[in-house]
Predict the structure.
Amino acid sequence: MAKKIKTVFFCTNCGSTQPKWSGKCPDCGEWNCMVEEKVVSGSKSSIRRESKKPVTLSKITGNNFERIVSDTDEFDRVLGGGFVPGSVVLLGGEPGIGKSTVMLQILQELRGERFLYFSGEESDGQIKLRATRLGINDERILISCENNLEQILNHIDNNKPSIAVIDSIQTVYSDTIDNVPGSVTQVRECAGKLLRCAKENNIVLIFIGHITKDGMIAGPKILEHLVDAVLYLEGDNKNFYRILRAIKNRFGSTNEVGIFEMKEKGLAPVTNPTDYFLSERMEHIAGSSVAVSMEGTRPFLIEIQGLVTNSTYGNPQRNANGIDYRRLAMLIAVLEKRAGLPLSTQDIFLNLVGGLKIDEPAINMGIIAGLASSYYDTPLDARSVFIGEVGLVGEVRSVPFIEERIKESLKFGYEKIYIPSNSLKTINEKLKTQVTGIESITNLFKQIF
Ligand code: TYD
Ligand code: MG
């Protein structure tokens, strides 16, 4: 059959293909997400596939996956106990966040015979420089600067590694596809062929992929449904902490995260996040409060800083660092309406110390306490901690993992623990005597000011 090349439009948000371009995807309704793609049609594969008969669940023998584990708990925790042979993992993150660094470190820590690292972004000299900086000189790691798909497949076939890393999937291209490297068609087709190769050879395949702040552009997002696990390395380029988070894992839970610090010699696990995030706290200063956040199933204490000052110009400023701006606006409105604080003439700044970004509402009461403390210019008790969500009518609402949060606070000597009064019913008797239940923010202010 003759080959035909036609142009279609691919939505980078929902993955649908459209015959015509429009500013908005007709399927998902997202704006500016359509990219042009050339597809070759008419060439049909002559291979006939063997059909697989359906079987009942009881006839399928369970598979106790033997995993490739590392020496660092922090990595294994995220993966649910190590890499499963034959699985495909996507490691995404913003450029410069530390993906290549973490990958090289993981390889060195893993137990396995041979690892292949394909880098389409850096020369072998650059990789050597990084490895030297990290103190890695491992004979098991083979480096190749190949980014041609057919050559990569050859190398994998010849070397039979236990793990192959593709850094990054956006740089891989196949000779048989006309589109430029990094385009949706190239990324999807190359990933598909590599994936088949991994399953056939029972090796772990790791794709590294860049994502931009606002999402995708022919990026790893379109691969998320193809792969077995999706890990994201998050953090702030200007700060040192990094969080490795599993957002999909077919072989484990997605609840766990690894917390790391970027140091001179690569990423070091942070085994005690509370110590790390509270290390520079100045006590007895107005505007500083402590809340408890959860990363995965681990609670840790964080410092919140609020600054409320008289506004010099007509339009008061609002600035949020670490939480969504709209959440700050909502909490300011609650403070005005429910606690009577006249904030419309005040500039308001909020910062989560350490460059953390937190979207869980459980730190809302801490934010409210920090802002009010700055407004009244009254320091909070240095041993106080705030756990609870604040609703629109100023009520303090219960949050998940309440006992874990209380225990973490007690562990670090925080004795004045304010929790939602509704949560008093759910915690054990011993903990009950060590906390104060709060119904609303007016009730809270009576207690702390
Ligand atoms: P890199 O792994 O190249 O990021 P990515 O692959 O995600 O683009 O690392 C990026 C940054 O990490 C780089 O700007 C320098 C910093 N870094 C350190 O601080 N310490 C180190 O030991 C290494 C290797 C890198
Ligand atoms: Mg890199």
Remarks:
- The domain at 68-271 is CATH 3.40.50.300 (Rossmann fold).
- Residues 221 and 421 are 41 Å apart (CA to CA).
